[in-house]
Amino acid sequence: MENIIEKIKNWGLEFFNKKRFLYFSILSNGLVVVKKIVYMSENKQWRFLSEKNMGEFLEKDFFQQRVNKFFFKFLFFPFKYQLIINVPHSYCCSKYFQIDHKRNSSKSPISEGEMTLIFSNYLLKLLDANKKEVLEKNGFDELNTLLVDHKVIDSSIDGKRFFPESDLVMESLGKDLKIGMVHTFLYRPISSGFNKVLPSRARVWGYFEDGFNLPLGLHLNYQNDPKLKNKKSLFAIIKEEETHIYQDNLNEIKFFDTFGFGYKNIYDALNNALGIEYEEFFVLLQKLANHDMSPNTMMYILRIVEVELQRLYNGLILFKKELGSSVIYVEAGLLAEVLKNHKRFSPMLISDEWRIESLNDFNGLNISKNNIADLIYGSLSRSNILNSLSAKHIRWLIPYNINS
Predict the structure, then answer these.
(1) E strand or H helix at 56, and its extent?
(2) How far is residue 200's CA from residue 336's CA, in Å, rounded to a whole number?
(3) Cα–Cα distance measured from residue 66 to residue 230, given in angstroms and rounded to the nearest whole number
(4) What is the pTM of this model?
(5) Among candidate residues 51, 53, 94, the one with its CA nearest the CA of residue 214
(6) How high is the pLDDT of residue 167?
(7) Residues 81-126: tens digit of each pLDDT
(8) In the prediction, which pLDDT does 296 show?
C-alpha cells in the first residue's frame, strides 16, 4: 500500500512540476508546425508529446483566425506554458559577436564594478551597429525592428573559458577578456500578433532565427576541440527550395546568403526522368539510401542525382572561397541519408548527435540537433552573473512578456 501511495505522490509531483512548452515553427515554405513539449526537471529530460500542422502563416490573418486563438487559449489548460518561436530569416535576425577587452591588470580578479563598466562602454554601441546591419540587409524600417533577445553565452580570459553562475571572484585571472554575446531582432508585427492571442498564463521563452542556433551550437561545442576552434567555417542548411549559408569567422556568426539549390531540385530532375509524384520522391530517397533497389536502377538514379549534387558542391566551394572559410558543415535535412555515403559530402555532414558541455541544464547530455538547438540556446545564461549584469543596460528594450 505504501508503494502505491509513494508512486501516486511521485506522479503528482512530476505532473505539477514539469515545465510545458510549445515549439512554434514557421517553416521556409510558409507553413506552421507546432510541437507540444514538456521538460522533466527531476531527470532533466525533454519529451515531445505531439505535433500539429496549423496551415499557412499569413502575417495579417494568422492571429485573427478564431481556431488559432482557441488553440492558444486552451493549450495546456489550466497550467502555465512557454513558447519557443522559430522564425524565418525574413522576419528575424540573430548575430553572435564578441566584446574584446584588455584589462588594466591581469593579477586581480574581475569585480562586478569592472564588468559593469565594460558593458556600459561597449553594449549600446554594439547594439546600434548590429541593428543598423539588420536594417540595411533585411530592409526593415527602424520602428518595426524589435530587440527580442540579448544574451551572454560564452566568455574567456587569456583563452581560458569561464562561465560563472553567481560569483565573479574566480581563479582565472588574465589580461585579455572576451565575452561572446547574441542579439536577436524581430519584425515587430510578429511580436504584436502573439501578444494579441496569448493568454496571461503564457510567456515567450524566446524568438529564434530559423537555422541560426545550429552553427551557434557547433561553435560552442568546438571551442573545446583544438583542431577546430580556430578555423573559420561555413554552415549550409539545405531547405526545400534553397540553401541557407551562415558564416562563422570566429568572432562573428550570422546569416550570409542563400543560393538556389534545394532538395526540390533533385525531385524536379527525377520527375522529368521518371514522372514521379512528390510523395513518392521521399520514398525513393529512403530506398536509395538503403540500397533497396536493383543495381541498374540505382546507377541510373544516382547519375541523375549526381548532376544536381554537383551544383550544390560548386555553390558551397564558391561560398567557401568568398568567405575564406576552412571548414564546411552541412545540415542536409531530407538528403542526409543519401549524402552520408557520398565521398565528397559525408565529411561535411554534422552528426545526428552533438555534445554541448557548457550548459547548466544539458551538461554532458547528448541532444538531437533537429528542432532542439533552440532549447539548448534558450537555456543559456538564465542565471549566470554576466548575463544579469549586461541585461541591466539593455533589458528595458525587450518586451515585457519575453523571458530573458
Answers:
(1) strand 45-56
(2) 41
(3) 51
(4) 0.85
(5) 94
(6) 59
(7) 989 898 999 899 999 999 999 998 888 888 888 888 999 999 999 9
(8) 92
DSSP string, 179-198: EEEEEEEEEHHHHHHHHHH-
Residue 49, C-alpha cell as written in the block:
508529446
The contacts found for 340-346 with CB under 8 angstroms, 24 or more apart, are 340/289, 341/289, 342/309, 344/313, 345/309, 345/313
* DSSP E strand boundaries for 198-304: 202-209, 233-238, 243-248, 252-259
Spans of the chain, pLDDT less than 50: 353-374, 380-381
Q: CA-CA distance, 92 to 208, in Å (whole number)? A: 7
Q: Give the type of residue at 366.
A: N
Residue 395: name the closest of 125, 180, 211, 123 by CA: 123
- The dihedral built from the CA positions of residue 383, 206, 51 and 356, taken in this order, carries a sign that is negative
Cell of 185: 531582432
For residues 75 and 40, what is the distance between their CA atoms, to the nearest angstrom? Answer: 18
Please tell me the distance from the alpha carbon of residue 211 to that of residue 94, in angstroms, as a whole number: 10
Which value, in Å, is the radius of gyration of the alpha carbons in the chain?
Answer: 23
Tens digits of residue pLDDT in 48-75: 778 888 888 876 688 888 888 899 999 9
